[in-house]
Amino acid sequence: KNYILALLCLTGLSFLNAQSANDLKGKNTLDGNDIGTRIHSCGDIGWDLIGSPYFEAPFGSGRSALFASNLWLGAMDASGQLRISAQTYRQSGIDYWPGPVATVYDSIYHARYDRVYKVTRTEAQTHVAQWNQAGYITPADLADWPAHGDTTNGEPWLMAPFVDVDGDQIYQPGNGDYPWFSGDQVLYTVYNDLHYPNFETQGQPLGVDIHTTAHVFSSPLGSPEYQTMFLQHRIVNRGTQTLADMYAGQWTDIDIGFFRDDYVGCDTNRNAYFGYNGDDLDEGNVGYGNRPPAMGVKFLNQKMASFAYYNNDFTDFGNPDSAIDYYGYMRGYWKNGNPFTIGGKGNRGFNPTRYLFSGDPLDTAQWSMETVSHQPPADMRGMGSVGPFSLAPGEHICVDMGFIFAQTDTGNHLHSVELLQQRMDVIQTFYDNSPHICDNLILSQAQSINPQASLPKLLLAPNPARDMTTIVFPQFGNYDITVYDLHGKVCLKYVVSGKEKMTFSTRDLTPGTYMVSTQHKGQTLSKKLIKM
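Given the sequence above, the corresponding structure tokens read:
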């Protein structure tokens, strides 16, 4: 990262200082039991905007699995002109600006939008129970939740989603309304690419608002969803032209502890890309030591269109230099205009591909950095994209993803990749059975902020169990049952039909803690199981 810090000191210093001062006020910490990260008001994820990472995993360990991440966007307008907005390390400025597209960007506007709103489930539940009681004080971010923009200033009316308790279609926490979100903590920020020219890409802006939310779950169990940050970008075309051949890419500098010994790859079957240590030891004071983890970014509601990596240099296979470079990486092209190709480092072959290093690193017969002899571990960047799609004026699209952490207790660095693959499958199932919001930003009172809170509970007896235990279902019916260990590995699976309870053997389970999960008519219920 040395050359990056040098550029921060040498290029656009006064401009960067002014923007960084504002943006640093727009950050907040998202910390679950096992993930802690930082998000800024212009969409930057995982670093302090100066030179230090902040994606702590496990939370409290002092180790980081990611250095920085942000959104790339590219499209063609009605006249065939390329539109590009993207951010990486802010060496020459930024392309995104706090707040939605507006008419006037004054001090009142900046005070409201140059910030990241944070609400916890505990705060929301307390508000639901006490909003009309004497002495109750509404938390500041819940009270100020930016559900509506100032339409007299050209801002959109609907922005951050909320539960409308009194049914008047207006966010009024004084009447019991509260933010809608999933998870135990949520961060929300909105930013645009039209306030100023694009300083990083030097491209023409798309004219979009980006509403970014991130949430985590808190639990002592260490299950996959508790070592995942869930991220959503809702991208809205605020311009007057249709954006065609549009791509959205999540650029990520995955640094597994020590940043100079990593590999990257992608998994087309799982719509994901990932980074992992290039050997069994992650060195240095910031390294993970033995059995280093793997870190993945999985698209949950869109098909991954391309995966690019590039070197930390300024060759044809390095850092993007111009607007067309950013667009090319999102579409499977190197800076010299040549397509990605299968084999080697992806730039000397004859068979085009959009997915670099798409083989499984655990299989030496497949194409991965692990099997390319002249590809030493290094400081890698990766970027997965979705698209192409088209956005007419006023239309929007949501891109949901999970940032998933996995570290094995046994084996080597590739066993962490194997565990990551298992966790990706669990997270997709978890996502598919969880509530989401994109099109309808106002929910009725009946749509609870915590759907799981009012669900009936599973019963397990005996628990702790030695040789067997019985699941008592909340109602008679058909159930899919899965037993996971603390790393998300599937240990047992059952399918039962027309029953209200089932007894199964725990004799083959290693003593420890497990999660029993059942699915019935789209609802997922879970219960902790202790094996003696």
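The radius of gyration is 24 Å. Try to locate this feature in the token string yourself.
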